[in-house]
Amino acid sequence: MTIEPGKRLFVLDTNVLMHDPASLFRFKEHDIFLPMVVLEELDRAKKGMSEVARNVRQVSRFMDGLMSGISHEEIEQGVPLISRELSGANNAPGGHLFFQTRIMPSVLPDSLPGGTADNTILGTALALEKELTDIRVTLVSKDINLRIKAAIIGIHAEDYTNDKVLDDVDLLFNGATALPADFWNSHSKDMDSWQEEGRTFYRLNGPLIKEWYPNQCLYIEGDQAFNAIVRKLEHEQAVIEYLHDYRQPRQTVWGINALNREQNFALNLLMDPEIDFVSLVGQAGTGKTLLTLAAGLTQAIEEQRYKEIIMTRVTVPVGEDIGFLPGTEEEKMEPWMGALMDNLEVLSPSASGGDWGRAATNDLLRSRIKIRSLNFMRGRTFMNRYLIIDEAQNLTAKQMKTLITRAGPGTKIVCLGNIAQIDTPYLTETTSGLTFVVDRFKQWDHSGHITLLRGERSRLADFASVQL
């Protein structure tokens, strides 16, 4: 095995390939080494319909395509990493892919027996480091404990960060920005204002416009409070619209009023027919699900804008798994939809007909809300639907793409989640699919995002969210 001077050699752990099948092509001009135990683990994980199994099969297809028509001698010298399937790759050559074709001498400490897959990978990386003294060998793994063990025995190890959307979650777009007190003085020169169908618009120019995004919410605090949304950005000009104030008693959505500024922004985005994708991020109790359902019921039942509401979420348990659940797809998903049922109780008006009227109202609402599993989303197309993806922080970027691309004409997708509560292994705040879509959609004219800041569930829940 010959490594060109100046290149690095990355030894990949199995979980990296399971997490991102295209990771083979993410190391630019550097070389990749796959221990034989990694191929064995991939082979054992290829069966099934899970996302991991699909990723493993994709990795196998990538490797099969790379090795097509290549002789054993060429494999020994390294398989050129040329992506013919990844969009945007432009078939640009990268480094080389090396496989373990011989038994590596065991140089592990006696405290680390080579019987486990992790220790075998560590032994392989350590042997390569001893053999290739002029090349920097790096072990790449999503497993924190493996990286800790690597550091203990002197192997340079790194996390796989290509799927990292942001360096720091504090840099995540929050969807709203406060305007300075002198905003009108610095941005009202040559300003135009007009009204259309009861809506008020302003066309302005000024230094802050270059920092705005489409459908970003703007506000000025104080006695002369002002709440607006960016409707259009043109060169050095912007068109903003004065927002509805859903905090007013008469401005309700399915009987619900906004309790704070961010909830008001969220309802404006959820009720806007020109916005096809909305993401709401916030801690527990900020009203994400309640506001989303209220807007969905209003538009599906009262305005007839959507045929029905579809709600789904990833089924990751907080505690121990309760095992298989009986029944149909919808019945299996019901235990995961406690948030839906709780919020429907709030949204069901106290019917004047007593228990019978309340039951009839609940039946009507449930008939317009369908519960679907993520496992059966592939290949489907949702037209004129209001699709709610709950607990979206537990989805990967690839899963999020799979769901959003299900949207047909007239469909609105709403993603809800709290990136501080991620239950999926190998996902972090900066690699979550929810973080991914918030960052990628912020420049699109038909999307909106708001980070909800204040808990409105109860003073107990609000205190617990902050202090515990």
Shape estimate? elongated
Task: Work out the radius of gyration.
Answer: 26 Å
**Total domain modules:** 2
What's the pLDDT, averaged over the residues? 85
Give the structural class. alpha/beta
CATH class of the largest domain: Alpha Beta
Q: Number of helical segments?
A: 15
Major sheet strand order:
3-4-2-1-5-6
State the gist of this model:
With 468 residues, the chain is an alpha/beta fold. It is built from 15 helices and 18 strands.
Question: Would you write up a description of this structure?
Answer:
The protein is of the alpha/beta class. It folds into two domains: 9-158, 5'-nuclease (Rossmann fold, 3-Layer(aba) Sandwich); 169-173 and 254-467, Rossmann fold (3-Layer(aba) Sandwich), CATH 3.40.50. It is built from 15 helices and 18 strands. The strands form three sheets. The chain has a six-stranded mixed sheet with strand order 3-4-2-1-5-6. The chain has a six-stranded mixed sheet with strand order 7-10-11-12-9-8, with no helix packed on it. It is elongated and about 75 Å long.
